[in-house]
Amino acid sequence: MIEYSRSDVEKWLNRSLESYYPIVFVNAVHVKVHWKRSVATEAFHVVLSFKVPYTETK
Question: Where are the domains of the chain?
Answer without folding.
Answer: 20-58
